[in-house]
């Protein structure tokens, strides 16, 4: 098994390759609002996915067998939030470049506002939505 340091160094080397391409081709760094890594050529897409695998391996090794097993067992909550967003078409109630209150989203979806708020907050954890903490309005990511 490789050391944590060697895995981290591999992650850094792959990230530097991707960053170099982005800088050379004047492409913005990725964010949760704009997935610019989709613009990478095929050979760098392979690097991207290898980076993802290395990051997951480092995370799992650093968390240990017990915590990694718990992570798998408890990840069903992410799926529930996403299923509710799809089933009740919650994303359709939020303008792409705007926000909507929980009451507005609930009215469009037909869900009770309390359930709507819970499902949106689960989806916020998966970065599907963002919440404006001052206005308590949700925005689609």
Give the gist of this structure.
With 141 residues, this protein is mainly alpha-helical. The chain has helices at 4-24, 42-74, 76-87, 102-109, 113-125, and strands at 100-101, 129-132, 137-140. It folds into two domains: 4-71, no CATH class; 76-140, Winged helix-like DNA-binding domain superfamily/Winged helix DNA-binding domain (Arc Repressor Mutant, subunit A, Orthogonal Bundle), CATH 1.10.10.10.
Task: Please give the structural blueprint.
Blueprint: H1 4-24, H2 42-74, H3 76-87, E1 100-101, H4 102-109, H5 113-125, E2 129-132, E3 137-140
Antiparallel strand pairs: 1-3, 2-3
Protein described:
The chain has 141 residues and is mainly α. The chain folds into 2 domains: 68 residues, no CATH class; 65 residues, Arc Repressor Mutant, subunit A (Orthogonal Bundle). The protein has 5 helices and 3 strands, in the order αααβααββ. Strands 1-3-2 form a 3-stranded antiparallel β-sheet. A hairpin with a 4-residue loop joins β2 and β3. α3 packs across α5 and α4 crosses α5. It starts with a helix and ends with a strand. The model has no long low-confidence stretch (mean pLDDT 89).
